[in-house]
Amino acid sequence: MGSGSIFFALVYLLVYPFIMLYKKIPMGPSHLMFPIPASLVVTGQSNDLNVAAVAWIGMMTYSPPIVTISLKEGRHSLDLIRKYKEFTVNLPSAEHYKETDYCGLVSGSDENKLETIGFSTEDSLNIKTPIIKECPYNMECKVVKEVTIDCWQLVFGEIVETHIDESVCKNDGSIDVNKLNPLVYLAQIKEYWTIGNKLGDVKTSGEHFTKKP
After folding, report:
1. For 209, which DSSP code?
2. Residue 173 — left, alpha, or beta (φ > 0 → left; ψ -120 to 50 → alpha)?
């Protein structure tokens, strides 16, 4: 073996352990996704109300604004959505992670979960399903479509109104995210977290790469 070959062999032996530290590990098909908003979805009207913790949620479009929630067939919330064709999405602050978690543990067909966790409701402006007073951000939604994937139902709701607590707004009316302190969920890991610190602004943070030397 020549000196060059010996040199590269030694380099490989020295570098290989560090290369292995960054090796990707196949995990197979997984629903691991983070972070996800930990939302409380209210369904029903008047004395026929329910609240459920829903993690499978996301924005689909912004004009019109469409949000999608995914519910398993047989859920009490899904029955009420089909009955009234509307729902509200309520985003709790991190301090209410225990109340949020409880709403995913029991069925609303068995008890009044809002009463159990000590939450109250306020009237919506454009639909009859109420919003949760203790959640700093709320969305009123009218059902526009439902899609079936296996045993799951994807419910598409058009957001017809939103609400924000005045206490989490800055003087100029914009949202103070630190005061909002939204609760987030880590799917599959099954943990609740806060979102952390601001790093930069959208559409300006990446401008660094557009500047040529």
Report:
1. G
2. left
pTM: 0.86
Question: What is the DSSP-derived secondary structure letter of residue 211?
Answer: -
Q: Are 132 and 51 in contact (CB under 8 A)?
A: yes
Residue-wise pLDDT tens digits, 188-200: 889 999 998 888 9
DSSP label of 170:
-
Q: Which residue from 166, 187, 183, 184 is spatially nearest to 175, judged by alpha carbons? A: 166
CB within 8 Å of 107: residues ≥ 6 apart: 76
Count CB-CB contacts under 10 A for residue 126: 11
pLDDT digits (tens, 9 = 90+) for 37-58: 999 999 999 889 999 999 999 9
CA dihedral 168, 166, 62, 130 (to 10 degrees): 110
Q: Which two tokens stand for residue 210?
A: 């557009």
For residue 118, give the DSSP letter. T
Structural domains of the chain sorted by starting position, each given as residue range(s) with its CATH number in brackets: 36-195 (2.30.110.10)
